[in-house]
Write a structure and sequence with these properties.
The complex is a heterodimer of chains A (170) and B (283). Helices cover 71% and strands 4% of the residues of chain A. By secondary structure, chain A is mainly alpha-helical. In chain A, strands 1-2 form a two-stranded antiparallel ribbon. With 283 residues, chain B is an alpha+beta fold. In chain B, helix 2 packs across helix 3. The radius of gyration of chain B is 45 Å and the shape is rod-shaped. Classes of the chains: A mainly alpha (170), B alpha+beta (283). The interface between A and B is medium-sized, with 21 and 15 residues.
């Protein structure tokens, strides 16, 4: 099983309406699930959406813009400081798009590894940004980080095949 | 735009987006005393430059001030230097005047003590010859000066008038070989004739070998030459050797003849006139 990409470049696109709906649903789930489902605070639906569509589009600029947009929306909804999630997700969008250019994204192992790595980068970047750079209190919990990685890998491996149904060849 | 930016536009786009949001964050977040983080960052980032620039400005200002002060000091120094030269000249002038005043005061005191009429004169020139023993004074015939009048200073005998002109006169110093002064030794009262020996020295002649003449013995005028009044200080014995008949006695004049400036001309001389004057108490 080859994880590197050998096929000719095949770029997918998603209808803007579908994309908007997916983004909306991901944000809705992100804000509505945690109060009712304790485990849901580990879920990172917007992050998974960013990873998926950035890899599918294989366009770094799109990844940056898409990640920034979703991140800023998430910041706005969380009543936190605008830019925290925007920066983290812009970075993840860029890295995901870059990975999409190099790896065979349809491979499950690739998907799982990339999700894990990008969740780690996302959370690590947020910690560095908030705790070290901005000097705001944010405890570092390794178990929480590992749990988040594993949970989101699991969700991603379930979610991404569903999202595959909405992608169209560019 | 640098080539590296053109080669990796997405990466630099990412950097730009991150930076923009970082600035957005810094505007929102406040730290102690509600200071926005962007202000903290800006102050932190710019403070070294501000401090450096401030130091440069301050250093420049201090350097300029130092140059200005140096400039002013230089001008002041030049002014003070000029004033110093003037002040030194003034001091020298005042010192000369003070010395002259002292000399004149001593001369006046001496004149008042003398039992003779006298004229104060100023030495205006010396003869141009080598080892000159003649000086010129600023009084002459119109002032009553006549030849053979004795010339003295408070320190002692100078010489005698040898030539008189309407307004000046020439004085032959006692160091001239042709000048003879009737003298005696103060302690032993031994008499002799003082003659000039040149080079600020005189010889006391006609003193017998058997006389004991100690060094430092004071030599006074004897009054026997009918020119110099008796008892005026002439000099001191500085050397004495036995000769065939007469001693060779060297006398150093009491007056520094090479630095004469003011002198007194005694109008009455001669032992008889001196005695008369002293008896009558006439000045």
């Amino acid at each position: 099983m080859d994880i590197y990409r050998h096929r000719p470049k095949e770029v997918f696109r998603v209808h803007p309406v579908v994309l908007s709906v997916i983004v909306f649903i991901s944000l809705l789930l992100q804000v509505t699930l945690p109060p009712t489902l304790p485990l849901a605070h580990l879920f990172q639906f917007p992050l998974l959406v960013v990873v998926y569509f950035s890899m599918v589009r294989e366009n770094q600029t799109f990844g940056i813009a898409f990640g920034t947009a979703i991140g800023l929306l998430q910041d706005a909804l969380s009543h936190g400081y605008l830019g925290q999630m925007g920066m983290a997700k812009a970075l993840v969008g860029y890295l995901a798009a870059t990975a999409g250019l190099k790896f065979e994204f349809d491979n499950l192992i690739v998907r799982g590894l990339l999700i894990g790595i990008l969740v780690l980068i996302h959370n690590g970047f947020l910690y560095l940004l908030i705790h070290e750079l901005l000097g705001l209190p944010l405890p570092f919990e390794l178990l929480h980080l590992l749990a988040s990685i594993l949970v989101n890998i699991a969700i991603g491996l379930i979610l991404f095949p569903i999202l595959d149904r909405f992608r169209l060849p560019a | 735009m640098p080539a590296i930016v053109l080669r990796h536009p997405s990466f630099f786009t990412l950097l730009g987006v991150l930076l923009a949001q970082l600035l957005l964050l810094s505007v929102q977040i406040t730290r102690n005393q509600n200071v926005r983080l962007i202000h903290v960052w800006a102050a932190t980032a710019f403070s070294p430059f501000e401090q450096g620039f401030h130091n440069v400005l301050e250093g420049t200002a201090q350097t300029w001030d130092a140059i200005h002060v140096l400039w002013a000091d230089q001008e002041e120094n030049q002014t003070l230097g000029s004033q110093l030269v003037v002040a030194r000249a003034r001091i020298q002038e005042l010192s000369e005047k003070a010395a002259e005043a002292d000399r004149l005061r001593a001369l006046l005191d001496f004149k008042s003590q003398l039992p003779y009429r006298s004229l104060a004169a100023e030495v205006i020139a010396s003869s141009p010859g080598v080892g000159s023993t003649v000086v010129s004074i600023n009084l002459g015939q119109t002032s009553g000066v006549t030849p053979d009048l004795p010339v003295v200073t408070p320190e002692g005998v100078v010489g005698k008038v040898v030539a008189v002109y309407p307004h000046t006169a020439q004085v032959l110093l006692i160091t001239d070989p042709s000048c003879g002064v009737g003298c005696m030794l103060e302690a032993s009262r031994t008499q002799g004739v003082l003659k000039g020996g040149g080079q600020d020295q005189c010889h006391l002649d006609y003193v017998m070998d058997e006389e004991n003449i100690p060094k430092g013995e004071t030599v006074l005028t004897s009054g026997l030459d009918q020119i110099y009044p008796k008892g005026l200080l002439v000099g001191y014995v500085v050397g004495s050797e036995d000769g065939n008949i007469y001693k060779h006695i060297v006398v150093k004049p009491a007056v520094s003849l090479s630095r004469l400036e003011n002198v007194l001309i005694l109008l009455k001389s001669g032992a008889s006139e001196q005695r008369q004057a002293m008896i009558l108490g006439h000045p």
